[in-house]
Design goal:
The chain is mainly alpha-helical. Helix content is about 55%, strand content about 10%. It has eight helices and three strands, in the order αβαβαβααααα. Helix 1 packs parallel to helix 2 and helix 7 crosses helix 8. The longest helix has 22 residues.
Length: about 160
């Protein structure tokens, strides 16, 4: 489904191989999808290594519809930016880019700048589309998620004051 949505994909069947690959090519990957049940490594250990050392957004996936909130919270605490239940939708895959944007914004500590520029309806989405370089990604999709991000930041600000 990722390939169908025009993402470049590297698959690994072995978690330790994937971890070594990520360490060697830190700047090559933008986001990681991992299985909650790994055969050769505990997924939470994988999460923790990547979150601390490589700093790439990770989305954990599971086929278990009855996944407990505590398992989801543990994954988030260890570094997951999302926990998706399979089967995944095409919409989820198409919108993975938002996790990369959040990472970039967090790294650059530009939340205040983003809030100011989100009102410039055409400028910010066009820059993000150019940065992401994902065929088929529309200005409307990016603008919608930027609006969601703005509301989330506004909500967090109100909650912290």
């Amino acid at each position: 489904m990722c390939v169908r949505c025009k993402y470049q994909v590297t698959t690994c069947c072995n978690a330790s191989f994937a971890l070594n690959l990520l360490k060697e090519t830190k700047n090559l990957y933008d986001v990681i999808l991992i299985e909650a049940q790994m055969t050769d490594m505990d997924s939470n250990n994988f999460l923790q290594h990547v979150a601390q050392q490589i700093k790439i957004p990770i989305i954990m996936m599971s086929v278990d519809q009855s996944t407990s909130p505590s398992l989801v919270m543990k994954a988030v605490e260890k570094g997951a930016c999302g926990y998706w239940i399979k089967p995944l939708s095409e919409g989820q895959i198409k919108n993975m880019w938002q996790h990369v944007v959040r990472k970039v914004l967090k790294e650059n500590n530009q939340n205040d700048h983003v809030l100011k520029t989100l009102n410039a309806k055409d400028e910010k989405p066009r820059k993000i589309i150019k940065l992401m370089n994902v065929p088929g990604l529309t200005r409307e999709q990016v603008a919608s998620h930027l609006q969601y991000f703005k509301h989330t930041l506004d909500y967090l600000r109100v909650g912290m004051t």
